[in-house]
Amino acid sequence: MRLRDILLFFLLLLLWGCEEPIFLDVPIGATRTIIDANVSESSSLSRIVLSRSLPFNDTTSFPPIENASVVLFPTNFGTNTFPFTYEGTFSFGALYVPQNQIRLIPKQFYTLNVFLPGNEVEQDTLFQAQVKVPTEVPIDRISFRESDQNYIVRIHFTDPEKEQNYYSWRVSQKINGQFVLLTPTRIPLSTDQGIDGKSVFVEYPFTSFSTLDTIQVHLKSIDASVYNYYVAVNNLIEASGTNASVENPPSNFASTEAGQSPLGFLSVESVSDSEVFAVIDSVTNK
Fold this sequence. Notes:
Elements: H1 3-14, E1 33-39, E2 47-52, E3 69-74, E4 82-90, E5 93-98, E6 109-116, E7 125-132, E8 139-147, E9 150-158, E10 166-175, E11 178-181, E12 189-191, E13 199-209, E14 214-222, H2 224-239, E15 254-255, E16 263-268, E17 270-273, E18 277-278, H3 279-284
Parallel strand pairs: 1-16
Antiparallel strand pairs: 1-2, 2-5, 3-4, 3-6, 4-5, 6-7, 7-15, 8-9, 9-13, 10-11, 10-12, 10-14, 14-17, 14-18
Pfam families: DUF4249
InterPro entries: DUF4249 (IPR025345)
Protein name: DUF4249 domain-containing protein
């Protein structure tokens, strides 16, 4: 697949939750394996999605990979392993979740193995990536900024002193009795440049909430490589519909089979989850 094809594919993948469909006149390229892996101790965020790429004008679901063996393990220490099991197939691919509670040691490297068994025409393939676990930064408190009779979430935390830190954050909302991880229009990101050791807050501006909403907030500490990947993805989003030239988001997965480099990235994250709370209670008690 040409570089231009890969760029546009990532854009389509990230915007699958948008209301308006995206139709692109792009030549069909070779099918690629997609590994979207976010691993953490948070039961709300830890999941792996496996699928195959699609032609860009194909509006069907991403072809799932339902027969993979997926295991996370410490790269150079210990004997603990954390297998993932297939949970179901959705429009975005096959979802794999941890069999048991994951426990991560900060500042250590972890490796993810994704093994795909072969068939009559394809060989067995092992995809592998590793990422260092950052230090968890706890949420100090949650506040709100009023906006058009609704409220924007503010996440307060204290940045660890004399340590490079990279952040992202998400919000889950209770909808029809189920908590749903909201999909922002771009990935919220921040570094500790200029705030080293300080108490600060970041906002989640993509959704405003009413006093009737119930939510949970997730502050993610991420590795520098993950931050750079997300920056590249945001650049793709901003370049959509323009003639701007942007770089392809780098993948950290390697393959045992030549020419089988996948799309996607492994992020091993330290996540601070807030308590589940009703917005009205926080607004009333602010």
